[in-house]
C-alpha cells in the first residue's frame, strides 16, 4: 500500500476562503453585539455631573436620571464630600419618594418643582433599618437634591428658595 495515497485520504480539505470569511464576520458581529450591550449598560451606570448653586454656595452635583441610579442614590457610601450633592431628575413632576436604604450618614433632602424652587424640605434624615421609612413631598416635584445633614439650615434654605443648575435635555 502506498503511504502517500493513504495520507491523502486521511486529510480533510481546507475550508474555502468564503467559509472562513463568513465565520470571521459572524464572530465580529457577535463580539460587536456584546460590546454594544456592555456600552449601553455602562452608559446607564455612568453618573453625569453638573454645577448646582444654592445662594452663594456651589456644589458638584451627581445626576441620578435613570431608575437604576435613582434607586441607588447615595446608598452604600460612607461619606458625602462637603462640596457634593446628588440631584435626582425625573421626567415629570410627581410625589417622588426617597428612602434611607443602605445609608451610612444623615442627609437633608430638598424637593424642587419644575421651576427649581424648593417645595418641600426634610432635615437630618437618619439611616434606618428595614422596613425603611419613605419620605415624600406634599407638592409635586420634578427634582430632588440630597445633601449632607445640616446644609439646608446652614444655607438658609426655605420653601420657595431657588436652586440653580443646568442639565442637558437628553441626559
Question: On the 0-100 scale, what is the average pLDDT?
Answer: 87
Rg measurement, Å = 27 Å
Strands of the widest sheet, in order across it, are 6-5-8-3-2-1-9
Shape: elongated
By DSSP, the count of extended strands is 9
H/E series:
HHEEHEEEEEEHE
**Separation of the first and last Cα atoms:** 76 Å
Main attributes of the structure:
seven-stranded mixed beta sheet; single chain; two-stranded antiparallel ribbon; 171 residues; alpha+beta
Structure, explained:
The chain has 171 residues and is an alpha+beta fold. The protein has helices spanning 3-10, 17-45, 67-72, 151-155; strands at 48-54, 57-64, 84-94, 97-99, 107-112, 118-125, 134-136, 141-148, 163-165. It has a 7-stranded mixed β-sheet. A hairpin with a 5-residue loop joins strand 5 and strand 6 (118-125). The longest helix has 29 residues, at 17-45. The model has no long low-confidence stretch (mean pLDDT 87).
Helix-strand blueprint:
Blueprint: H1 3-10, H2 17-45, E1 48-54, E2 57-64, H3 67-72, E3 84-94, E4 97-99, E5 107-112, E6 118-125, E7 134-136, E8 141-148, H4 151-155, E9 163-165
Parallel strand pairs: 2-3
Antiparallel strand pairs: 1-2, 1-9, 3-8, 4-7, 5-6, 5-8
Give a quick precis of the structure.
This protein has 171 residues and is an alpha+beta fold. Helix content is 28%, strand content 33%. Strand 2 (57-64), helix 3 and strand 3 form a beta-alpha-beta unit.
Amino acid at each position: 500500500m502506498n503511504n502517500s495515497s493513504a495520507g491523502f485520504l486521511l486529510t480533510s480539505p481546507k475550508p474555502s476562503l468564503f467559509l472562513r470569511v463568513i465565520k470571521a464576520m459572524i464572530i465580529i458581529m457577535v463580539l460587536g453585539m456584546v460590546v454594544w450591550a456592555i456600552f449601553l449598560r455602562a452608559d446607564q451606570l455612568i453618573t453625569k455631573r453638573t454645577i448646582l448653586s444654592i445662594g452663594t454656595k456651589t456644589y458638584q452635583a451627581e445626576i441620578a436620571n435613570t431608575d437604576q441610579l435613582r434607586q441607588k442614590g447615595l446608598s452604600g457610601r460612607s461619606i458625602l464630600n462637603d462640596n457634593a450633592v446628588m440631584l435626582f431628575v425625573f421626567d415629570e413632576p410627581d410625589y417622588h419618594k426617597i428612602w434611607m436604604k443602605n445609608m451610612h450618614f444623615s442627609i437633608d433632602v430638598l424637593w424642587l418643582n419644575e421651576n427649581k424652587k424648593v417645595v418641600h424640605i426634610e432635615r437630618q434624615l437618619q439611616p434606618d433599618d428595614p422596613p425603611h421609612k419613605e419620605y415624600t413631598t406634599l407638592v409635586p416635584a420634578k427634582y430632588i437634591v440630597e445633601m449632607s445633614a445640616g446644609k439646608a439650615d446652614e444655607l438658609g434654605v426655605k420653601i420657595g428658595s431657588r436652586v440653580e443648575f443646568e442639565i442637558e435635555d437628553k441626559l
